[in-house]
Design goal:
Number of helices of chain A: 0
Strand content of chain B: over 45%
Structural class of chain B: mainly beta
Distance between the termini of chain A: 41 Å
Shape of chain A: globular
Number of strands of chain A: 12
Structural class of chain A: mainly beta
Radius of gyration of chain A: 13 Å
Low-confidence stretches of chain A: none
Distance between the termini of chain B: 37 Å
Helix content of chain B: under 10%
Mean pLDDT of chain A: 92
Order of helices and strands of chain B: EEEEEEEEEEE
Largest sheet of chain A: 6 strands, mixed
Oligomer: heterodimer
Chain lengths: 113, 117
């Protein structure tokens, strides 16, 4: 079956530091890949996505590249801000599964001044 | 993006009672909604897929008689935890599928933290 593995947190960084949150997946076929973010007290929001190999999703300074050869979709940001503190979820959706998402465990990011 | 409202945000109930959680799509119609459960430090686990006007499809291992899902309209799905026990304490999250205007994306509610005492 499908599965998503992401690095355990929490990740604590100083403002303007470089961020990488690793995500690898197992799936049949060619899934779509997503990063969701959950700010305190709020629901999950789609941060970025990629639907095919070598696609790069990007939003709000975050980016992730769909690497089929390594089955990875690592999230990166060059310079984090305090406002980026949140929980980040990597997820995948297999084709034809009517938007059923498989999530990773989530990684809490804490950015300090 | 589209807005999904989940209510209540948190609830405490006594063992043996039932609790209803509502999930509403505020600015779009959703023929499909999803209910997830999240345990501490674990990923979101899909419980069931709710389809408007028909029975929900439950994932393996989820008790349909315990977790009743009703999707009576295109903007509302409800999850009722019946005869709740402490082991049902968890964070429940819904999402609604928006397929309007050339998109196909799931939008999430803010979640409901259920504590059964």
């Amino acid at each position: 079956g499908n599965s998503v593995t992401q690095m355990e947190g929490p990740v604590t960084l100083s403002e303007e530091a470089f961020l990488t949150i690793n995500c690898t997946y197992t799936a049949t076929g060619y899934p779509s890949l997503f990063w969701y973010v959950q700010y305190p007290g709020e629901g999950l929001q789609l941060l970025l996505k990629a639907t095919k190999a070598d696609d790069k999703g990007s939003n709000k300074g975050f980016e992730a590249t769909y690497r089929k050869e390594t089955t990875s979709f690592h999230l990166e940001k060059g310079s984090v801000q305090v406002s980026d503190s949140a929980v980040y979820f990597c997820a995948l959706k297999s084709a034809g599964t009517a938007s059923k998402l498989t999530f990773g465990t989530g990684t809490r990011l804490q950015v300090t001044l | 993006g589209a807005v999904v409202s989940q209510h209540p945000s948190w609830v405490i109930c006594k063992s043996g009672t039932s609790v209803k959680i509502e999930c509403r799509s505020l600015d779009f119609q959703a023929t499909t909604m999803f209910w997830y459960r999240q345990f501490p430090k674990q990923s979101l686990m899909l419980m069931a897929t709710s389809n408007e006007g028909s029975k929900a499809t439950y994932e393996q291992g989820v008790e349909k008689d315990k977790f009743l899902i009703n999707h009576a309209s295109l903007t509302l799905s409800t999850l009722t935890v019946t005869s709740a026990h402490p082991e049902d304490s968890s964070f429940y999250i819904c999402s609604a599928r928006d397929q309007g205007q050339g998109i196909d994306e799931a939008f999430f509610g803010q979640g409901t933290r259920l504590t059964v005492v």
